[in-house]
Amino acid sequence: GEHTVYLGLITSWALPILALQWFFGGHVLWQRDRGLWLAGVSVPTLFLWFADSWAISLNIWAINPRYLLEVYIGPVLPVEEALFFAVTNCMVVQGMLLFVRVAEKLDAASEPSHSH
Fold first, then answer.
1. What's the pLDDT score for residue 23?
2. Which residues are 72's β-sheet partners?
3. What pTM value is reported for the model?
4. How far is residue 39's CA from residue 33's CA, in Å, rounded to a whole number?
5. CB 79 within 8 A of CB 71
6. 60 and 109 in contact (C-beta within 8 Å)?
7. How far apart are CA 72 and CA 111, in angstroms?
8. Residue 106: which H helix or E strand, with range?
9. b/e for 63-84, b at 16 or more Cβ within 10 A?
10. What is the pLDDT of residues 63-112, one digit of tens each?
11. DSSP sequence for 2-63
C-alpha cells in the first residue's frame, strides 16, 4: 500500500549499494575498520536524527503520513527518516573507508622495490 512507499524507495535505492560495498569490502570494513565505521556512521546519524526531529517538531517541515508506516523513534521521527539517514551515512562512510584502502594498496604497489 501507500504506507510503504517511503520505506520501499529507501530500500530499493540504498540496499543495492550497501550490498555491493559489503560484497567487495565487507572483510575490510569488519576486520580492519569496525570501530572507525561505527563512529563514522553513528555520530552523524544521531546528529541528523536529532536535527530532523527538532525541525519536524517545530513544523519547519513535515512528511506526509500517507507514505509512512507511522512508526516513530521518539515522539516525531518517522522510522523511515531514521533509516534514510542511517543508510546514507553507511554508504558515505563505507565508500570513503573502502576508497582509502584501495588508494593505500595502489600506493604500496607503485612504490619501488628495495630488494636486489
1. 96
2. 78
3. 0.88
4. 10
5. yes
6. no
7. 52
8. helix 79-110
9. eeeebbeeebeeebbbebbbbb
10. 999 999 999 999 999 999 999 999 999 999 999 999 999 999 999 999 88
11. GGGHHHHHHHHHHHHHHHHHHHHHHHIIIIISHHHHHHHHHHHHHHHHHHHHHHHHTTS---
